[in-house]
Automatic annotation (TrEMBL):
GO terms for cellular component: membrane. InterPro entries: AB_hydrolase_1 (IPR000073), AB_hydrolase_fold (IPR029058), AB_hydrolase_sf (IPR050266). The lineage of its organism: Bacteria, Pseudomonadati, Bacteroidota, Flavobacteriia, Flavobacteriales. This is Pimeloyl-ACP methyl ester carboxylesterase. Residues 20-184 form the AB hydrolase-1 domain. It comes from Gelidibacter algens. PANTHER family: HYDROLASE, PUTATIVE (AFU_ORTHOLOGUE AFUA_2G14860)-RELATED, MONOACYLGLYCEROL LIPASE.
Amino acid sequence: MSKIQVNTIELDYEDYGKGNVLLLLHGLGSSKKDWDSQVPFFSKTHRVITLDLRGHGASTKPTDAYGVGLMTEDVKAFLDQLHIKKATFVGFSMGGAVAFQMAASYPEYVENLVIVNSGPDFNDMGSIGEDLLNSRTHFLETKGLTLLAKEISFNMFPEDHQVDLRNAFETRCKNNDYNAYYQSFVTLMDWGLGNQLEHIKARTLVVASDMDYTPIAFKEAYVERMQNARLTLIENSRHGVVIDQPDAFNTALEKFLKDE
């Protein structure tokens, strides 16, 4: 592990391989460990960088400075520190929001965009978003993070053969700082690109699981609004596709990168 100082905080990261850069951005309440099944595969052909976003993993956990905008500024400063001018951004869930914002705010840094079970407008998801915000904040405030981690992990990995995945993700989630998780969640649910989405020119792959929280139609709708995007469906997978179907995900991403 290495650390870089950006915007008054430290980001913890790992850097593997050589070649064109793949920057892998994890989901809410998790860490760069989300990408354990991708790093060995892609570092044979690419320079693969994983990092813990602010408030997560081994990175700094501020008291009140959170939000997709701040995380995006962190990522830009991080790349500048490493003298990286372009990368393929691969963002899972919350990481997808950060990747989207990078493509909107700093398109010159984005070689390709890969969005994994995420969306461009967490603040405009209708009843799905409202129910998630209300139910999760209520759960956190009444039952705490440990029980929430258990519920989230079971929903992501409910099969008997997934018990090891479930336990590992539960441990990662419950070890979060409560305030950092809460602030990251509520600011994420307040974020959206709006009509900036139509202006993103980056070549984009959207990866959707057949059993994700949001339906396939949700991803199809925003892919249609983008200039240069396509959708890939991964079957027999829930929200954590990079973990529960790593081979299928890696194959889809590899094909997208080779098609350049």
